[in-house]
Amino acid sequence: MRKRNEKGAGVKLLHYPPCPQPKKIAGLAKHIDLYFLTVLWQDEVGGLQVCQDGCWISVNLNVFSTVVNIRGIFQVID
């Protein structure tokens, strides 16, 4: 779903359904979320990593945790 107003502000909602055969999938390529705010819901599969000082580090979360990433705002402030 994508919603945008006349001033350029917008919201984009994505839903990725569970993979029917997760053991056969290696995962997504390394990427950076370019949005101001990213909300991730952690399921039992896991796999979230963050890049710190050029190294990718696995994030250990409880099942059904929620991650809120506001990375973009910190780059502007920094």
Automatic annotation (TrEMBL):
PANTHER family: 2-OXOGLUTARATE (2OG) AND FE(II)-DEPENDENT OXYGENASE SUPERFAMILY PROTEIN-RELATED. This is Isopenicillin N synthase-like Fe(2+) 2OG dioxygenase domain-containing protein. Residues 13-77 form the Isopenicillin N synthase-like Fe(2+) 2OG dioxygenase domain.
